[in-house]
Protein 1
Amino acid sequence: MTARRSIARRLFIGLSIVGLVGATLLLIFIIREHQQSFSALGDPEAARHAFRELFEHVLLPILVLILPMGMAGLIVIRRALAPLGRAADQLKVVGGLERGVMIDHAAFPTEAVPFARAVNDLLARLDQAAREHEAFAADVAHELRTPLAVIALELDALDHPDAPRLRAELLAMRRLIDQLMLLARVEAQSLAHSMRDMLELEEIGADVVSLLAPSAIGAGKNLSLGRVGEAPVVTGQRETIAAALRNLVENALRVTPAGGSVTVLVGPGPRLRVKDGGTGLTAERLQELIQRHRRADHASREGAGLGLAIVARIMAAHGGRLDSLPEAQELILDFTPIS
Amino acid sequence: MASEMRLLLIEDNHRLADLLVAGLARRGFSCDYAPSLAMATEAIAAQVHDVLIVDRGLPDGDGIAWLRDMRRAGYMQPALVLTARDALEDRVSGLDAGADDYVVKPAEVDEIAARIRALLRRPGPRSETQLRFGPLKVDLASRATLCFGRPFDLSRREMDLLELLLRQAGAVVRRDSLENALYAFNEPVTPNAVEATVSRLRRKLEDVGAHGMLHTVRGVGYMLREPAG
C-alpha cells in the first residue's frame, strides 16, 4: 500500500529534485568552464571567490526560477481542485433517499471530468435500480389487490357462520399489503422533492383522527386530538407522516379495550404523541418490534406486524425518531432534529 | 320506483365487476356495468344514472381523464372513483377532475354502498329534497324534521347543523368547517358557539329517542352515526 500524498507535496518533491539535478549540472558546467583545480580552494580568498561565483551563477538562478514556479504551481492546484471540494460539499448534504443526484462538473478541470462522468454513470445506474425495485414492489402489491378484492366480494355473498372470521383474516392481509406498498415507497421513492413541504402537525393529526374516529366510535372507543403549546410545523412528506401516525393510532386502538380512550397529542415542540389505554411499550420492546421485520418474523401478538418498523423508517427519513414513554403509555413521533 | 337508485360501474375486471354489481344489488342499488370507457360513454348517454363508480386504469384510458371529459359534456351526477393507488397525488388529481369521493381498492361492498349513500345526500343538481338517515328524516323544502316518524322542532341554526352533519353522516365533520358554514364571516363567533348548538341538538335528538347518534370527536369535530344495534 502506498502512502497517500497531496499534490502540493508531490510538487514540492518534484521541484526539489529538479533543483538538485539542475544545481549539480550547473556545478559541473562551471567547474569545467573555469578549469579550477580543487587545490586552489585552499586559499581562503579563492574559496570565497569560488563560493560567490557558485551562489551568483548556480544557487540564485535556481531559487529565482523554482520559488515562483512552486508558488504558481500551488495556486493552480488549489484553483483547479476548488470545484471538486464544492461538489463534495453538495454531495454531503444529499440524504440517502434522494434521487437523480449528479455531480455538476461544469467547473471541473478537463482531467477530472472522466472521473466525474464515471461517477455520474454509476449514480444513474443506482437510481435506475432503486426505481425498478420500487416499481416491482408496488407491482407485486398492486397485483395482489385484485384477487383480494375478488375474495372479499365472494365472501360478501357468502352466508356462512365462518364468513365474518374469514373477512377479518382478509382485512389483516390487506393491511399487510398496504404496509408493504408503503414500505416500498418510503425506501425507494424520492422523498426529496416533496420533502420541503411545510406541514402543520395538528392538521395531519386532525386528518388521521377524522379518518379513524368512525370505526373507533363504532367499537365503543374514544379517539380525540389535543395540542400542548405552540402549533408545530415540520418540513417533510405529508402522506408518509400521516401513514406513520395512522399506524400508531390503529395499534393504539387495537390494544385499548372498549370504553377506553386513545388521544393524539400535538406538541410540545415538533412531536406527535399517541396515548393509549394499553400497557405501554418499554424502550427495549419497542426496539424489538422495530427490528422484527429484519428477522423476517412478521407474526406479532400485538398485531403491529411491519407497522412499527415502517414508522421508524419514515421518522428516520425525516431526521426524527420513534420513541416510547411506557410510564405514560405513549408512543412519540419526534421530529426534533438529532444534533 | 322513483326512489330506485341506478348506478353505472366502469370497471374492466369482469369478475370483480360481476361480484360488485351483485353485492350492490343485495343492498338495493341497480347497477349497470361498462367494461371500457367507450362503452361507458354510450351507457351514460342512453340512461340516466344517479351515481358513477369509476375505476382508474381502464384498457382505453384513465377513468379520471374520462370523468373530466364527461363533466365538460355536462354530466354532473356524483362520481365515486375506485383506485388501487392510494397516493395522495391521485386523490388530489381525482377530486380536481370532478370526482366527488374516492375509495381505495379492494373496498368492501359495505363501504362502497355507504359512500354512494353519502354522495346522494350531498347537495347537487340531482340530490333529493329529503334526507334520511337511520330514524331521522329531514325535509329540506319544508324544513320539517321527523324522528321515528314523529315531528320535532329545531331552531334555524340547529336545523342547519343537522343538515350539514346528515350530508356527511358516518364521517367526522370538522369544527372549523361547521363554524364557517353556520356563521357569516362578520358574525361574532364565541369559541363555544358550535359546541353549544351541538349539545342543544344532541339533547333534542335524545329526547325524541335518537340515542347515541351525535358524537363529539374532541379536538376535531362532530359525527352523526346510526344508533348502535
Protein 2
Amino acid sequence: MSLDTSASATESGAAPRPRRWRIASWAPVIVLVALCIIIGLINPNFFSFGNFVRMSQTAMIPLVLGLGATFIILMGSIDLSVEGILTLGAVILSMLVLNGANANDLGIFGIFIVLAVGASVGFINGVIHVRLKVPSFMTTLGVWFIGVGVANALLGGMATRINSPLIRGLAIDRFLGFPWGVWLALLCFVIALIIQNYTRLGRYIYALGGGEELAELSGIPVGRVRIMTFTLAGIFYAVGGILAAAQLGLGNAQIGNGRLFTTITAVVVGGTALTGGRGGVHQTLIGVLIVVVLNNGMVLMGVKPSVQIGVQGLMIIAAVALSIDRKLIRIVK
Amino acid sequence: MVKKLIDHAMNRRVGRRDFLKGAAAAGAVGAFPAIITRSAFAADKPTVVNSIRSLSNPYHATWNAGGAAFANSVGTDYVTLVTEGNSEKGIADIKAILAKTGGNCVVNVDPNDSPDARPIVEACKDAGAYVVTQWNKPADLHPWDYDPNYVAHISFDGVPYGKAMAETLIKAMGGKGGIVALGGIESNTPAIARKAGLMEALEANPDVELLDFQVANWSETEALEKTNAWLTQFGDQIAGIWAANDGMALAAVEALRADGRAGTVPVTGIDGIQLAVEAILNGEMAGTVAWDPFWQGGMGLSIGYHAKTGEFDPTTEPKDHREFYGKGVIITADSAQSYFDTNIAAEPTLDWNDIWGRVNGQIVY
C-alpha cells in the first residue's frame, strides 16, 4: 500500500498530472451531456423547446447567485449570505416599484437602488471579514440572518404584490422565445467572465485562492481584493433577488428559502474547488445546468419526492470527491 | 471613489473589542421580554394575554388584532407576548405575566412546540389563571385533567378542508380531467391531513386522475419549479392544480402565467392569505380556506375570560367543548368578494359571546 502511493507520487511529478486535471475539468460537461441523453431517452418531452425555455427560467436565478458565490469560493472563502441579500433585495424592490402596498413607482431606479443595497451589504460582509478578522463563514452567516430579519421587519410578515410591468416583464415578456430574465442572467454571466479573465481583480482572486501568503508577499492588496469581491458578490445576489421577485410577482421574507443549498451545489458540481484557486464562472454555468437538468429530469421521470432531495445531497458529495486532488491535501478538517 | 471608500473602511480603527462591546449592549436590550402593554393594569378585570410566535407574519399579526378587538369589547387590559420561535422565552414570559398580575389573567397561547403546553398549563394552574391552548399540545395532556384552569384546546382538522378544496377544484374543472398536487413538508401533520383529504375526494371522483403528487415543502420557489416541470411532462393534460397552502398555489399560478395559461387552469390553496383571496377575485385561483386567526386570537381569550369571570363552569362542559376542532371558512369565487370586504378591507366584527359557535367536533388522537 505504502509502496503504491510512493510510486504514484513520483510518477505524478511530471507529465500525468496535467492530463488528470484536464479530465477532471471536463467531467462536469460529460455528466451534463450524459444526463440529458438519459432523461431524453426516458421522456422525449425533455428535448422540446418549451422545456428548454422552462429550464432556462429555472436556471437564471441559480446562475446569477452562483456567479457571485464562485468568486468567493475561488478565494477559498465561503458566502452564506446569499439568501439574506437576495431576500432583502426582493423585498426592497417590491416596495419601490409599482406595487400593491404603497404608492411608489420608481421603475428602473428601483432596480439601481436594489443593486446598491446588494453592493453595500456585500461591502459590509467584506469589511467585517477583513477588518475584524471574523472568518467568512461566521460573518456571512450573521449577515444572512440580519438580511432576512430586516426584510421581515420591512414587510411585517406580509407579502407585497409587484405590479410594475417592467419587473413582471422580466419573467413574462420574451425575446427570441426566452424571457428577458434569462437574457439578463446571460449578460451577468458575460460580465462575470470578463471580470474573471480580463481584469486585475479577477486575476488577484485566483492568486488569493492559490496561496494567500504568496499573493500578499507579491504585493497584492489582499484585504482590498477581499472586500471588493464580497461587494461584487453582493451585486450578483441582488440581481438574483430582482429575478426572484419578478418570477413570483411578489416580495416576501421567505422568497430566498433553499437558494443557498442550490447555489453552493451548483458551484461545487461545476468543479470549482472549495479550497480555492481552481474553477471559474464558466464551470458554474455547467454546474447550474447539471442541477437544473437533474431536478427537471427527476420530475419528468417520476422519481419519488422523498428521493429527490437525497439525490441532490449525493451529487454534492460526489462532485466534491471528484474535484479534490488528494495528492495535494494531507489533512482534512 | 470606490477605492477611497474601501481605503477609508480599511483604515478606520474600530477595535474588535469596541465591536464586541457594541454587540453586547445590543444583546442586552434584546433580552428584555417583548411585552407590549396597551395600558396600565386594571385591578379588577382579568388581564387578557395572547402568546404567539411573532408579529412578523400575517397569520399571527391578524391573531393579535383579534385579541385586541376582544379586549376592547370587554374593556380590559391586553398583553401580547411573542416567543420568536424560542420555547424557553415563551414559557418564561408567561410566568412573568402570571407573577405580575398575581394570576388574575387569561392566557390564550399558540405554544411554540407541543411539549411547551404542559409547563404553561401547570404554571397557569399554580397561579390560578385560566388558559386556552391552540394547535400544539401533547396528545396525553387534556384540559379536564387541570380543572378548572385549563379551559380548552382548539385545533383544526386538515382532512375535511383538503377534501373541500379538492372538491372545489374538481367542480371548477367540470368534474373530470387530470390534476397535479403540491404537498407541504412530508412529515408535517397539517400536510399529511390535507393530503389525506385530497385523496378522499379523488376516491369519490373516479373521472379525475391524479397525474402526480410532489412535495414542495411549503416553498414558493420549489412549487414554481415543480409546476414548470409538470407543464413539460403533462402539458394540456393538466386541468387543475391542488396545493396544500396558498403560497405554493400562488407560485403555481405564476408558472401558469409564464406559460400563458393563468386563469384557464383552476388552482386551489389553503390558509386564506390576502394575495390568495385577491387571486380568487381575479379568477386565477378557484378557492382557499381561511382559518380566521382573528377569531382564534379573540375567541381563545373570550372562552377563557367567560370561564374566569364565572359565566360558565368549564368542569361541567362536555368534552367536545374542551378539546375541539374549529371551523375554517371556505372561500370560493362566490364568497371571495364578501370575505374580502368583511375580513380584509375592514376589521371583522364577531360576536365574542358566541363561544361555542364554531365547535366542529371533538379532537381525535
